[in-house]
Specification:
The protein is of the alpha+beta class. Helix content is 53%, strand content 13%. The N terminus is likely disordered.
Length: 310
């Protein structure tokens, strides 16, 4: 059992090396950076860490005692930076991080650290990332934290503190933690999916990384106990890949509905391979057509029917 765990940890280290390999040579001393490398681009503006930010940062560092003292950790406050503008273009995917966040947020990060984690402080509007911001893994981490902010906003709007119900108080609390993590990871995956799906290894790595990130942040604190397991029986199991497939399936079906209302539908239906199809056969045929003709990678088509941001 022990051996198996060690093996698993080794695999995770390899994954971290792949996922956190910087895509850009960033000069973190510069106030503004705009770097294009390969098919990718990063652009950000640094901002000051004020007295209040520093207090919150010190508190955060202290709270992560189990990650400190490791090689290349993040305990030195002076090696942290902050940004209030951060835009990526990864392949065809544009990610303007602060456009997803409410006003006043800052992202704090520690480029020299080899510890990979993130956290969000809603009250003080701070997202902390214990690594740099120039790798796919960092982007996933940042988007996961943005996902938490989005989820939190949704709860506020609904005027509830949790969405998980059906168990006793302890069960709900534990299951709600897992729901939040799952939701945050799904948010990150949705934003990155178009790029991730282009490379099987990267896709698997990021899925596993996000899954582990969520588990690590809570299970170690003893939440994965019998009550969690029981409460989870009231709720979907945590499987982002499965959820992602469901989500994509939903998106695809919505896209089909939209397509059917459009004037492109008549032209499609008049093609000889589709004209004979019964109504119930159309959706399946359309999905195949979308894949085979490369429409799934056509930004215009995706924007029009899938509502993906350009
Ligand atoms: Zn989280």
């Amino acid at each position: 059992m022990k051996q198996k765990k060690a093996h698993g940890e080794g695999l995770f280290q390899e994954l971290e090396q792949r996922v956190f390999r910087p895509l850009f040579d960033v000069d973190f001393q510069a106030e503004i950076q705009d770097i294009a490398q390969g098919d990718n681009q990063i652009s950000f503006t640094k901002t000051e860490l004020n007295e209040h930010d520093r207090e919150q940062l010190a508190r955060y560092i202290a709270s992560r005692s189990r990650d400190r003292g490791k090689e290349g950790d993040f305990s030195d406050e002076s090696s942290w930076y902050a940004v209030d503008r951060l835009v990526y273009n990864i392949g065809e995917t544009n990610l303007d991080i602060f456009s997803y966040l409410p006003d006043g947020y800052k992202i704090l990060f520690c480029p020299n650290s080899k510890v990979y984690n993130g956290a969000v402080d809603y009250e003080n509007r701070i997202i902390c990332v214990t690594s740099d911001i120039s790798s796919l893994g960092s982007i996933a981490t940042i988007l996961h934290e943005v996902g938490h902010v989005k989820d939190n906003e949704r709860l506020k709007k609904l005027d509830v503190t949790e969405l998980t119900k059906g168990g006793d108080w302890e069960e709900n609390r534990a299951a709600e933690q897992m729901r939040k993590e799952r939701e945050a990871s799904l948010y990150a995956l949705r934003k990155m999916w178009k790029e991730l799906r282009k490379n099987e290894q990267t896709k698997k790595d990021i899925l596993l990384y996000l899954k582990n990130m969520a588990y690590y942040s809570h299970c170690i604190t003893g939440l994965q106990n019998i009550s969690t397991a029981r409460a989870m029986a009231h709720h979907n199991p945590y499987d982002p890949e499965l959820d992602m497939q469901e989500e994509l399936e939903r998106q695809r079906y919505d896209a089909w509905e939209k397509f059917k209302q459009s004037d492109e539908y008549a032209a499609w239906k008049s093609m000889k391979e589709f004209t004979q199809l019964d109504e119930f056969e159309e959706y399946g045929a359309w999905c195949q057509w979308v894949e085979e003709t490369g429409k799934v990678d056509d930004p215009e088509f995706l924007g029009k029917y899938f509502g993906f941001e350009q």
